[in-house]
Design goal:
This protein has 9 helices and 7 strands, in the order E-H-E-H-H-H-E-E-H-E-H-E-H-H-E-H. It has a 5-stranded parallel beta sheet, with helices on both faces. A two-stranded antiparallel ribbon has the order 3-4. Helix 1 runs parallel beside helix 9 and helix 2 packs across helix 5. The protein is globular and about 40 Å long. It comes from Butyricimonas hominis.
């Protein structure tokens, strides 16, 4: 059976990572999120902290930092690495794991990077604002006001990475095969729904 890939884009607090992880378990395939940072570091021989600084969650401040050239230890970052180079390294890792085995990949423009892969199904998870705030409150053990501000902040910064590197728009339904509101069905219900969608999209009832 050919490999297949499920990519998961998600709003902060929408339980996208949990849904992606549950999908990987449901299909008995590999799961990649921060694991890609470690792999990119291993493949390139570069310090993992470089990739962590360029991670999608830090992209809001990252683009400004690249313009100025931020300091990393005794060196200037733009003296020997560029954000484009780090993205290329991580892109190569994403293509490699997609070629090696079936997997779920969360974030990191994986849907765009694998745009020529006919066995790649791209999902976006969003949710009602109030549900997202509750999720962040419970996950990070912070007051409602702090959780709400964090959600709003991430809503502004998370799209930067995707919109900067892809020719699509983050969160817009046309950028994905399926966009799902996880607050309607809950995590398990959303996983059930996506599982059936993936099977039908790939024309395989058992994968």
């Amino acid at each position: 059976m050919e490999n297949f890939v499920i990519t998961v884009g998600r709003q902060f607090g929408s339980c996208g990572k949990e849904i992606g992880h549950a999908l990987a378990k449901r299909f008995n395939i590999a799961f990649y999120d921060k694991e890609l940072i470690a792999l990119a570091s291993k493949e390139s021989g570069l310090c993992q902290e470089f990739f962590e600084k360029a991670d999608e969650k830090n992209s809001g401040n990252l683009l400004q930092a690249f313009a100025a050239g931020f300091t990393f230890g005794p060196f200037q970052y733009n003296d020997f690495l560029s954000n484009d180079k780090l993205f290329q390294i991580q892109s190569d890792v994403i293509r490699k794991v997609a070629n090696e085995h079936s997997c779920v990949i969360v974030g990191r423009c994986a849907d765009y990077i694998l745009r020529d892969n006919k066995r790649c199904i791209n999902i976006f998870i969003h949710a009602d604002m109030e549900e997202r705030v509750k999720t962040v409150m419970n996950r990070q053990h912070i007051p409602e006001q702090d959780a709400r501000e964090l959600v709003r902040k991430m809503d502004k910064t998370r799209p930067n990475y995707y919109n900067f590197y892809s020719d699509k728009e983050w969160g817009v339904a046309a950028s994905y095969h399926l966009s799902v509101d996880s607050s309607l069905l809950g995590v398990e219900g959303t996983v059930d729904f996506i599982e059936q969608f993936v099977k039908r999209a790939l024309n395989e009832e058992t994968i």
